[in-house]
Amino acid sequence: MYKILCKDGSAKRGQLETVHGTVQTPVFMNVGTVGAMKGAVATTDLLNLKTQIVLSNTYHLHVRPGDDVVKKMGGIRKFMVWDNPVLTDSGGFQVFSLAGLRKIKEEGVYFHSHIDGKKIFMGPEESMQIQSNIASTIAMAFDECPPHPATREYMQNSVDRTTRWLERCKKEMARLNSLEDTLNPNQLLFGINQGGTFGDIRMEHAKRIADMDLDGYALGGLAVGETHQEMYDIIEKTVPYLPENKPTYLMGVGTPANILEAVERGVDFFDCVYPARNGRHGHAYTNHGKMNLLNAKYELDDRPLDETCDCPVCKHYSRAYIRHLLKAKETLGLRLMVTHNLYFYNTMMEEIRDAIEHKCFKEYKKKKLEQMKEETK
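^ that's the sequence the OP posted. Answer follows.
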């Protein structure tokens, strides 16, 4: 059950109660695509990094190790040793990202595995079955993430099919949750709003799926090539047509600035690979801008990554040492960078929740964005 605790303008401070624990929102979901954080960060580390919920991917877990294996091991949470909620992406984004390996039809999508070329078919029912086997807390409906740019005709046809697929997902989810051998019979279902940068298609689709009374709603198909301002405009136009009393999730977004802008427009849930990916490439998020630790000026710098940060990395390690690890291609360097970045993101979400509670979100956002533009000394 989702409950709004307070609001500051359109920014919502809420909580989602699930069978696997309560999620305080707005929230950032740490991305563990195949049941693991990239950068050698263990699930046992995540609570110290203020992580509430992890995202894993249906398609990737289906391909390897196989959702049947995950089910036999007691579900993804038991398998990866994580007691808290997990959200599974439906595989719909792979329809977009693996464009060269798939064919979309009304019944679903025909893939070739990116690992061994093996033929795979995934439709709404298959996606729900795989996610039920994985036993995530929240399952995402199977959709098509259309390419950007796309013609109005392509977009409308795609969105109509996504709506038909959503009806099939809802029906199949209800069936699966009623079975005796289902690992999580309380699995929640979030629907996905699509429509690219066509505001009218987005709004009409939002109205249609809002009537289906799902557990939550996502905005998909953004951050795929459009400008930041186009994305913000679409969020602003679409969110008012999604049920306010259900969580709203902006998929695959984003930078700290993207998150701040989207929270102001009523979004609760976020996920993005940036903290881990940028960390692995030597980029640290700090309260004084993003820093590239590979720069020579940090070679003899004995300060922590961020002198205002309380994370386990900043408490112990210097910029010089972490830079040395990265240059030496030591895995520990990646681990320390990703650990810090995840802590930074989760702390920012904590600050956002606090700012909404104290009715000072606009001031907080302005100050944070100004800090982000600074250059780390």
